[in-house]
Design brief:
By secondary structure, the protein is mainly alpha-helical. The protein has 2 domains: 106 residues, TATA-Binding Protein (2-Layer Sandwich); 108 residues, Endonuclease III, domain 1, CATH 1.10.340. It contains 16 helices and 3 strands. It has a 3-stranded antiparallel sheet. Strand 1 and strand 2 form a beta hairpin. Helix 5 packs antiparallel against helix 6, helix 7 runs antiparallel to helix 14 and helix 13 crosses helix 14.
DNA sequence: CACCAGGCAGTGC
DNA sequence: GCACTGCATGGT
């Protein structure tokens, strides 16, 4: 009798687990990778190749949407794609804010906030300023080949980088900013591990002391490299959608996970075609 | 040719 | 504090 009850309970949980994992929104590679968070990926005939990590620590993922086991079976990539966060609960909460927010959530429900290496994210978003995603990817690829041997350039390799080398790779006016940032990390002014723990405004302040890191780059580095989900980067697209959809409001209406809301809004604004012009 | 891109520093007020 | 401008580069 006891064993029968135990068996029934086990069966019940098994069915529930299956059911919940079935209804849970699946990670979308297409909506997550090209959404301006990371810059080292490619896609060919439905197969995605992703690189992450600095120097010798580089890892390469090859995966297709119809078989995500290379991600789910590998703790590194499971963490990279933030599989443990309950995005369905966050979207349900966000969707009560306004019809536009609900639309942004349902537009690309498989978006995740990536968990990238903090140095790679910080450096990548220094490159990103006043630049477009396609060109950012090209510059970073050339930096990886020139300094990293395939992995992302180490802090050390960029501390001693020559500015004319960086300009040749296409960095333009950002070349000294990259060296400044590497120097601040190398000298310990920026302690990347600490940025994950300390007060968020203190963390922003530390980053913004570097010439070349402003509020937007700091927020992106913290959100995508330190998993600070309360950071809310305001780029040109976010300014547009906030002005139109949430006039007079700021990030506080989205609560402590505003960074996640930001990513749904950013992706919606940039790809839906509804916010291209200054009109509306 | 102008204008833009996941901005920022410098200057002027 | 806020508004304005120059900045490297490649794409429309």
């Amino acid at each position: 009798m006891i064993t029968l009850i135990v068996f029934s309970v086990k069966l019940f949980y098994t069915l529930c687990m299956r059911n919940s994992s079935f209804t849970e929104t699946q990670l979308s590679l297409r909506d997550t990778l090209p959404s301006g968070q990371c810059f080292r990926f490619s896609e060919c005939d439905g197969t995605w190749t992703v690189k992450a990590g600095v120097g010798e620590g580089v890892r390469t993922l090859v995966v297709r949407q119809n078989d995500l086991s290379p991600i789910t079976d590998d703790p590194f990539w499971a963490a990279f794609f933030d599989l443990d966060t309950d995005y369905d609960a966050l979207k349900a909460s966000f969707s009560t804010i306004s019809p536009l927010m609900a639309e942004a959530c349902s537009y690309a429900p498989g978006i995740r906030i990536l968990n990238q290496d903090p140095w790679e994210a910080l450096c990548s978003f220094v490159v990103s300023q006043n630049n477009n995603i396609k060109r950012i990817m090209g510059i970073i690829e050339r930096m990886c080949n020139f300094y990293g041997g395939g992995g992302f350039p180490t802090v050390r390799s960029l501390v001693d980088a020559r500015e004319d080398d960086l300009r040749r790779l296409g960095l333009g006016f950002r070349a000294p900013y990259i060296v400044n940032t590497a120097r601040a990390v190398y000298d310990g002014l920026i302690q990347l591990d600490e940025l994950k723990k300390i007060d968020i405004d203190v963390a922003r302040g530390i980053l913004m002391k570097v010439k070349g890191i402003g509020p937007k780059v700091a927020d992106c580095a913290l959100l995508f490299g330190c998993h600070r989900l309360d950071c809310f980067p305001m780029d040109v697209w976010m300014k547009r959608i906030m002005a139109i959809g949430f006039p007079g409001q700021d990030k506080s209406i989205f609560g402590p996970y505003a960074g996640v809301a930001q990513q749904y809004l950013f992706h919606y604004a940039r790809t839906s075609g509804r916010f291209d012009g200054k009109s509306e």
